[in-house]
Amino acid sequence: MTGLRLFCFCVVPLLLLGTAEEVENPRRDRSHIESTLKLKEEKPADDYSAILQRLRKIYHSSIKPLEQSYKYNELRQHEITDGEITSKPMVLFLGPWSVGKSTMINYLLGLDDTPYQLYTGAEPTTSEFTVIMHGPKLKTIEGIVMAADSARSFSPLEKFGQNFLEKLIGIEVPHKLLERVTFVDTPGIIENRKQQERGYPFNDVCQWFIDRADLIFVVFDPTKLDVGLELEMLFRQLKGRESQIRIILNKADSLATQELMRVYGALFWSLAPLINVTEPPRVYVSSFWPLEYQADTHQDLFSKEEISLLEDLNQVIENRLENKIAFIRQHAIRVRIHALLVDRYLQTYKDKMTFFSDGELVFKDIVEDPDKFYIFKSILAKTNVSKFDLPNREAYKDFFGVNPINSFKLLAQQCSYMGGCFLEKIERAITHELPDLLGSIGLGKKSSVLSCDKTGCGETPKNRYKKH
Ligand SMILES: Nc1nc2c(ncn2[C@@H]2O[C@H](COP(=O)(O)OP(=O)(O)OP(=O)(O)O)[C@@H](O)[C@H]2O)c(=O)[nH]1
Ligand SMILES: [Mg+2]
C-alpha cells in the first residue's frame, strides 16, 4: 500500500510534467517546423527525375564535349558529375566556432537526445565536414567511401587529398526533410589559427561547398562577435553567391534587447565592407535550439524569425529544379567563354607565327601580355560576354603552362557532319534547351530569366533574395 502511495506521490507528477531534464529545460513546440516545411505532405510523384534526366542529357550532349575539348576542368578544377546533376539542394552552415551550427542542424532535424545527434559543445567541437543526408537507416559513411562513389555528388572532393577525406564524413538519417535537402556542417572558423594548419586546403574545400550550396547560413554568436582576417577570407570566398547567403544572429535570447540591437549594428558595420552588393543580405535573429527562449526577451520576434527562415528553406526546396537548371546554365556560360578565349589565343598564335619564328617565344609573348593582342577585349566585343564573367588572366598562364597551345583545335574545326559544331550546340543549350526545360516545369519564367536575347548569353546579376 505504501509503495502504491509512493508511486502516486512521486511518479505520477513526474509523468504528467515530463522528465526532470525537461522540467529544468523546457522545450519549445516543434509543430511549426513540420507545417512550414510541409513535411507531412506527400509530394506528388512529379516529373522531377524525368526533368533531371533531360538535364543530364543536355549536359552530356551539348556542354561536356566543349568542356573536355578545351580542358575546362584544368582551369577551374570544376567538373560536373552525374551525381551533382541529380543531387538534392545543399544547405551549408558556415561561421566562427561554437556559434551553434551543429546545434541548429540537430534542432531542425529533431536529432537531440537521439543516438545520431551531432556533437556540440562550448569549445571548438566539429572537426569534420559532415554531410547529413537521407538514407533508409542510420549509417555513417567514411569520406574515402563517399569520394569513391561516383553516383554521389561528393566524388570530386577526392582532389583535395587523403588528409581531407579523413576530415569528411557522411551521416545517413531516415528523416523526411533530408529526402528534400542535404545539410553540410563545417568546422568553425578560428581566428587565431591559420586555416592551412589543418593539414588540408580548408579554404579550397569551403569554396567547393560554397560554389554548390543552394543556401548558405553564415551563423554568428552575438556574445562573441569576432570579425577577423579568417572571416574576411570567408566572405571573399562568398563573393558571387550573395543571393544564397543568409546571416544568422543566433543565441539572440542570451542578450537583453538593447544589447542585441547594439550587436546587430556592430555586425553590420563589420560586414558591410565584406559584402559587395547594394542590397543587404537577409539576417535572421533568433535562437535556433530546442529550448524555450529566455524570459523577458523578444520571444515573439524570435519565433517569427524562425518561421521566416523555415519558409526560406522551403522555398529552396520548391525551387530545386529551377536552381539546378540555372546552375548548369551558369556552368555552360563559363565553359563557352573559356572555349572562346582558348580559341582566340590559338588564333592569335597562328596569326603571329611565321616560317622563321620560334613558336614557344611567340606564345610566351601572348600569354605574358594578352591585352597587347586584345584577347580578352575581342571576346567582350564580339560575343556579348559580360565582363564580370571573364576568368582571371593569370589563370591562363598556368593553364597554358600545362596544356600546350598546339594541343587545341580552333572552334571552327570542332564540327562534325552528324553532330554539328560544339560551339553552336552549347549556345543552343544556353539560349533554348535549358530555358525550354525550365518552361516545361511550368515555372513560366523561361523567357525572362534565362533567355539570352537581352543579355547576350552573359551572366545577369541574379537577385534571388526573398524577403519575408
Ligand atoms: N543560448 C544558446 N546557446 C546555444 C544555442 N545554440 C547552441 N548553443 C550552445 O553553444 C555551444 C556551441 O554549439 P555548437 O552547436 O557546438 O556550435 P558550432 O557552431 O557547431 O561549433 P563548432 O563545431 O566548434 O564550430 C553549445 O554549448 C550549445 O549548447 C542557442 O540558440 N542559444
Ligand atoms: Mg559544430
UniProtKB/TrEMBL annotation:
Gene Ontology MF, one: GTP binding
Tree of life domain: Eukaryota
Membrane topology, record value: Peripheral membrane protein
Predominant subcellular localization, coarse grouping: other
Family annotation (PROSITE patterns): G_DYNAMIN_2 (PS51718)
Keyword tags: Glycoprotein, Membrane, Sarcoplasmic reticulum, Signal
Dynamin-type G domain ranges (all copies): 85-326
Protein name: Sarcalumenin
Gene: SRL
